[in-house]
Amino acid sequence: MFDDLPVDVTSKSSLSGDSSQLTAEGMLLQLADGTTVACNSSAERILGYTASQIQQWSNTDFPWQMIHEDGSSVSYQTHPAIVALQTGKPCLNVVMGFYQPSGKLVWLRLNSQPLFQANRSSPYAVVTSFYDITQQKLQQSGKHSLVEVTSENLLQHQALLNTAREALRHSEELFRLAINHIPDVFVIYDAQRRFQFVNQAGLTLSGKQPQDLLGRTDDQVFPPEVTASYLPILQRAIETKTEQTGECTITLPDTEPYTIVVQYVPMLNIQGEIQQILGITYDITERKQKELKLQQNALYDSLTGLPNRVLLTENIKYSLQQAQQKNDYLFAVLFLDIDGFKEINDSLGHLQGDQLLVAIASRLSNCIRSVDIAARLGGDEFVILLVGIKNLSDAIQIAERIQQELAHPCKLDGQEVFISASIGIALSSTLDYDLPEDLLRDADMAMYRAKTQGKARYELFTTDLE
Fold this sequence. Notes:
- This protein is α+β, with helices and mostly antiparallel strands.
- The protein folds into 3 domains: 1-166, PAS domain (Beta-Lactamase, 2-Layer Sandwich), CATH 3.30.450; 180-299, Beta-Lactamase; 302-465, Reverse transcriptase/Diguanylate cyclase domain (Alpha-Beta Plaits, 2-Layer Sandwich), CATH 3.30.70.
- 38% of the residues lie in helices and 27% in strands.
- It is built from 16 helices and 19 strands.
- The strands form 4 sheets. Strands 1, 2, 3, 4, 5, 6 and 7 form a 7-stranded antiparallel sheet that branches. Strands 9-8-12-11-10 form a 5-stranded antiparallel sheet, sandwiched between helices. The protein has a 5-stranded mixed sheet with strand order 14-15-13-18-19, with helices on both faces.
- A hairpin with a 7-residue loop joins strand 10 (244-250) and strand 11.
- Helix 13 (341-348) crosses helix 14 (350-366).
- The protein is elongated, with a radius of gyration of 35 Å.
- Residues 3-23 and 143-150 have low confidence and may be disordered.
């Protein structure tokens, strides 16, 4: 029940002349199937039903009767809560008449706010808040008669209230149990961003106790490096008085970074002022890790960790665009093939061959600048992309450095393995290149010339090789 949470359900409303009184705000929580799972005591009082009765309402069995301001009946499908669930959008400031079980008509102003889980397009629940505006409606229509209150009515009301309180206590226990067992963080702020309630998931994640949080703001509890990512979203919700959602990466002390989606839902009173803000946090760290893994598999070689053909091609494409925009921009593609790798792989085994490829990848990475790219196309074929070089001699220096680095023996399970590579070089200025594949093709042709010329050497692509 909302009453067990520190939800401020009162707001000042001017009713007549200079007098004013506190108007209690009823609140209902319904799931996507229309089932009502929680309400507060103000909802019981306004609607005239007990909490246990209200929580039996569903989309197939509801006892209430409501009318529009023109007197026409409100169907279940046009109720603001159901409209918010079906459209996924808030349904605000709707005025309807509600018949209590006694037959008395009360007029309500309702606001229904859908709640979403991370990356879900359909809401999983809706929170509806409402006010009794019967007195205002009577004043507007010139009807000021009051219902006569008799001692018999008071006794009946007291008996009903006692029954409702017991049902409320039981319902509160069930609701607290439910809200504390959901895996997502659920908090309630007041209008000044002070914590009023934090469920067990929030306490566990933050490592705090309730007394550390309640009555304080986020920036009074957590360091700036923690709050900097999500407080602007909360502040935006306060300034706009609208629901705000955003993705953040959080690092709490002594924890690994995790990624969350935060959703802040301002709850407004009848004057349109913020009463509370519901905050829901969904942990999407596992999903982001899976996305990162998929990206890694799509763009990087699984054995060596070097960029694969896809990522290499994109970078060559970008370099071609730079060369088209800047006349003096020069880059080079070096195509490498390890000499005699098949014989090494066959004699030592595929496991040792893979270890050798990993060692080669590491050496190639050590030979280039941070702006350059070493990629593996597959097998024993590697490509180096040298960006923003001054002239051909820069590419030749890298090719010679690679030859020198590979000349050092590799130790595999105590055995020294000697390797070399044939390298083909294609300069971006050699031809009017348009496609990355053309540069790779020409560097490959130059590499084969190096192999036929004796291996362990480099060759420059020229037009006579076409």
